[in-house]
Amino acid sequence: MSGQAPLNATHDPAAKSWVASANGGDTDFPVQNLPFAVFRRRNAGEDFRGGVAIGDQVVDLQALARYVAFTGAAARALAAAGLPALNALMALGADAWRALRAALFDGLLENSSLQSSLIDCLVPQADVEYALPAAIGDYTDFYTSIHHATAVGRLFRPDDPLLPNFRWMPIAYHGRSSSIGVSEQAFHRPCGQSMAAEASAPVFTASRRLDYELEVGIFIGTGNAQGNPIPLRDAENHVFGLCLLNDWSARDLQAWEYRPLGPFLGKNFATTISPWIVTLEALAPYRLPFSRPPADPAPLAYLDGDALRAGGAFDMELAVDLQTAQMRAQGLAAQRLSRTNFRHCYWTVAQMVAHHTAGGCNLRPGDLFGSGTQSGPSPAEAGSLLELTAGGTRPLALASGESRTFLQDGDCVTLRARCAREGRVSIGFGCCSGRILPARAQLEDGRC
After folding, report:
1. What is the architecture, at CATH level 2, of domain 139-437?
2. What pLDDT sits at residue 43?
């Protein structure tokens, strides 16, 4: 695929930054990463603007444009990146993104002639707050983990867990962009209809089976004209980068409403993403071949290609942590619930883009995809409580003495991701955290 960024000087494992915190092995943001976000200083009355992470600092791209004169594509990209949302930068395309990233890399390297100018553009991450990185016009949530689809299907259809279309195309539904929030989002437990197994009529109540979903977010950069599908070979040129995404799910509401048209109130109350978008160029050293089990059908021609097979997957370790209100009160750290890897994804980023546009759908800069819950082949690699607790029948024991089948009020869920490979500097995505507040709706009968 022509969109796959080749390795270049920005991936040099020997490269160090004059920002000391970027050189430790435990940082998510070495100079080889340089992800984008939208930020402002907390309680300073400032406007939001674009920034790039380096160690424990943020490069203020609006300020940088005043101090440093980049040229050509890098200059145009820098001007767009200083705005309150990154849509204009996303619209410029892959050549502009790469030019800006290369210019920032050069300026942040040890002994860079730009150090004296750039140092005045640094803001400590501890002092900032984040906004959504883009104005998200449309949000599509995919269903691309065969391990998740099989495990969930087994709970409801033990004799035929995986629907036949799953192996032939990336399944998805259109979600609600208005309720997407950035990390540290707090939201109220949703209410809606649910139908107990033994009941003859549904009830309207607060969800009792609230869950998280460990997902990867995919931000679209350049769009396409309506009626013009994006071919697989060009798909990644239309992807600005990846983030973490938690598609919170009310399983009891979802189970009652999803037939025949799919998720609605069970999904539309909140989705949380991490603030930092890691570019596909930064992820180039962590690519893997894309393959299918030999017995599975090969993708149809519009979803297949040699370049996809050679490097269409990403080696990206994903993890979920839970901290309950009681754990916080006891001073206990968050507890790791599961760990898996994006390499297990049955459909790739490029295939999602190609299939989404195959019928003529037009994507726009800032549109967001969710990868669907990412689970691995073993039960411990499950990306949701629905799987980890076998539909709520096997509670998880927590270090605080509590147990969980589904999430309770006050619970805080944090997603993390990291890419590592021998001979390369590891990079991370920051964190994606969200906290559950009690249901706010009040009915006369007091049920919700």
Report:
1. Alpha-Beta Complex (3.90)
2. 93
193 CB-contact burial (10 Å; exposed 0-12 / middle 13-18 / buried 19+): middle
Q: Residue 393 CB: number of other CB atoms within 10 A?
A: 8
- Measured between its terminal Cα atoms, the distance across the chain in Å is 51
Instruction: Look at residue 54 and give its three-state secondary structure.
Output: strand
Residue 265 per-residue DSSP state: T
CA distance 129 to 116: 25
Neighbours of 264 (CB within 10 A): 14
Annotated active-site positions, please?
Answer: 148
18 in Cβ contact with 108 (< 8 Å): yes
Q: Out of 3.40.50.300, 2.60.120.10, 3.30.70.890, 2.30.30.230, which CATH number does the structure's domain 9-131 have?
A: 2.30.30.230
Q: CA 176 to CA 141: how far, in whole Å?
A: 10
pLDDT digits (tens, 9 = 90+) for 147-198: 999 999 898 888 889 989 999 999 999 999 999 999 999 999 999 999 998 8
Which residue has 């927590």 as its token pair?
A: 398
pTM of the model: 0.96
What are the residues whose beta carbons fall under 8 Å from the beta carbon of 222, sequence distance 6 or more? 90, 91, 92, 93, 94, 237, 238, 365
Q: Write the DSSP assignment of 353-401 as a string of letters.
A: HHHHHTTSPPP-TT-EEE------SSGGG-SSHHHHTTTTTSPEE-TTS
Domain spans, the chain? 9-131, 139-437
Residue carrying the six token digits 């603007």: 49
**Structure tokens given for 170:** 């990336």
List, for residues 211-227, the tens digit of each pLDDT value: 999 999 999 999 999 99
